[in-house]
Amino acid sequence: MSSDILTKKSIGTAMAGRMIAAAEAKAVELGIPMAISIADESGVQKAFVRMDGAPLLAIQVAVNKAKTAAGFGIPTHVWHDFIKDDAPLALGAPHIDGLVVFGGGYPIKAGDAVIGAIGVSGGHYSDDMKVAEAALAAVS
User: CA geometry: angle at 118 spanning 56 and 28, to 5°?
Assistant: First the structure.
């Protein structure tokens, strides 16, 4: 049966590389070394760079931002408004391994399909968002 096999769209290596380059350029412009993770549609890392001087813990945060954005198909900063007034979610979210609820992670879409995600960490989340948005703009 055709319903037994799924066909998925996924980000290619070339696009991931262009996104990394655009993100690095924006981070240099801001003067903030960053960790930048590109994941495929399933949240599996496709490309990664830790710029010289980026904090060590930024690696894990960037990877988790990409996984969160790929897994739910929404930017990570949307989570805060989603959970802030919902006590069960607000109390439960910190216990979900790898879930990030602040800015810097975005899904990468082709039409309505999530084909991957980007996660950026190294500065304040507002700076992480600027770097991720520059990468998205470079491929849209």
Answer: 60
Residue carrying structure tokens 């949240």: 43
3-state secondary structure of 138: helix
Instruction: Kindly give, in sequence order, each residue whose CB lies less than 8 Å from that of residue 76, ignoring residues fewer than 6 positions away.
Output: 65, 68, 69, 100, 101, 102, 103, 104, 105, 106, 119
Radius of gyration for the alpha carbons in the chain, expressed in angstroms and rounded: 15
- What 3-state DSSP class applies to 29? helix
Quick check: 67 and 117 in contact, CB under 8 A? yes
Q: Tell me, what's the pLDDT at 1?
A: 61
- Tell me the average confidence (pLDDT) per consecutive run of 10 residues in the chain, 140 residues long: 85 97 98 98 97 98 97 94 83 84 96 96 98 95
Q: In angstroms, rounded to a whole number, what is the distance separating the alpha carbons of residues 73 and 76?
A: 9
DSSP string across 53-111: T--THHHHHHHHHHHHHHHHSS-TTHHHHHHTT-HHHHHHGGGSTT---SSSEEEEEET
